[in-house]
Amino acid sequence: MSNDAAHQRSFATSSPRQKGVTRPRRFVELQRGCSTMSPSCWPRGLFGPKGQRRGMHMSWAPLVTIFVVYAMCPTNALAQWRHNQRSHQLSAMTTNDLVQLSSLGNAAAFRQLLKPILVERIVDTQSHRQVGDYLKSTVEQYGFSTEWDAFTDTTPYGRKPFRSLIATYDPLVPRRLVLACHYDSKILSQKFIAATDSAVPCAILLDIARTLGPFLHQRYNQHITLQLLFLDGEEAFLEWTEKDSIYGARHLAEKWSKAWYPSTNGSAFELSKELDRIDVFMLLDLIGAPQPTFRSTIGHGTTELFIELAKIETALRGIGQLRSVPNAFSAAPNYYAIEDDHIPFLKRGVPIMHVIAAPFPRVWHKPSDNEANLDFQSIYNINAVVRVFVARYLGLTNFGSPTVNNG
Ligand SMILES: [Zn+2]
Question: What is the pTM of this model?
Answer without folding.
Answer: 0.81
